[in-house]
Structure formats: C-alpha cells, structure tokens
Amino acid sequence: MLLTYNLSAIVYLPTRSQGYSSTAIDNMFTDTHKFINFTVSPLYNGLSDHDAQLLKINNIDLQLQNYHIYTIRNINNYSIEEFKTRLSYKSWDSIFGYNGNVDIDVLFNLFLNNYLRIFYTSFPPRKISERSNNNSWLTPGIRIACRRKRCLYLLTKDSDDVI
Fold this sequence. Notes:
The chain has 163 residues and is an alpha+beta fold.
C-alpha cells in the first residue's frame, strides 16, 4: 500500500537493544525517488535501550511556492510631471501632419508606439516579490491570544521576580 504513494522503508538497522536481542521497531518511510541522497544512522543517547534515528537528506532542492512576483509602477507627482514634459517635447507631426490617403491603423500604431515609449521611460516597471501568508486557519481569537501570550512573556522576561 505504501508503494502506491511511492514510499519505501529506509531504516534497516536495529533500533532497540535488550540484552542479547535487538529489534527494528522504528519505521521511517520516504519517497526514495524524490530524495536520492540520504543517510540514516542511529543516534545513541545512553539514556535508554532505544536508539533514536537520524535522517540526513543531502542536496534538497526546495521550491519557493509561497512567493508571488508583481510588477508595479511608481506613479507620483514628480513622475507625472516628467511624463507631461516628455509628451510636450515630442514632435507629433509625423502622425497628425498627414492630409492624404494614409492608413488609419498605421497612424494609430505610430501614435501608440511613441506614447508607450514615453510612458515606459517615465513610469518604469519594478518587480517585487511578496510571500503569501498561508495562515488562513488563524482565527482572530487565536491571533489575540498569541499577542496576549507574547505580552505576558515579555512582562515575565523583564521582571526580576522569580516565580
């Protein structure tokens, strides 16, 4: 059944030693196709007859899934004035000076290209990345309780009294 989810057992060494017998009672499963370079070793603590298992995964390729990249433009009073000035210095004779048989689509494309060139230089795009907050499960009550807990912690941290 575990193989249907691509999971395989990775602990093959004994994890519990009792006198003359040793057993492997810990089970660890991982996707061995996704994590190829890993090691499992016992972690002896000397406190129990049960050894902990240490899983070390090398060369993990974490994908950033919580980042969104937005493109914004900084439009303020200064950039608007700069845009107006650049528009006023532009010669529009090549577009509005035609009296003869000229294709309207060509004239519109000329106008749009000139306008957009000035627009993009006056309001350059800037990319920002924002991490999405995936804490939708936090209710307002939990948020209030967390803030209160932090305040109480800071009060006890700063006080000289020992409880």
